[in-house]
Amino acid sequence: MGKKELTPERYEMAKRVRVIRKSVGLTQEKMSEILEISLSAYKKIESGENQISLEGLRKLQSELKISADYVLFGKHKDLDNIWEMVLNCDEYDKLRMLMRLINYFTKARNERYADEEEQTGYSDKIMNVLREMDL
Fold it and tell me: CA 82, CA 38: separation in Å to the nearest integer?
């Protein structure tokens, strides 16, 4: 049996998996552990030779909160509707959402990947931005 053809769809999905892994600061080894597959099997997913399994998609959702829609199609469910709501809300609500997002990303970074010193640096940067905004 010959090598599977790397279609544009397979290439894009493989690229999204690689971007997801890098964006959350994981090595290929750690990602293969999360998916409970061998390192070589994971590398084949990133190269587009193999596709991620249904079970793998479930694990990405449960462990990393990554949508299967995003992995498969590059789309986030209802993202356009959410963006429309953000655009149409008042400035106070936009600021509240921004603060909640900053809080979310600060906590997520602290819980998974940043050591205490690195997290302090992020917190200091956020506080400087808030001071500059006069909040």
Answer: 37
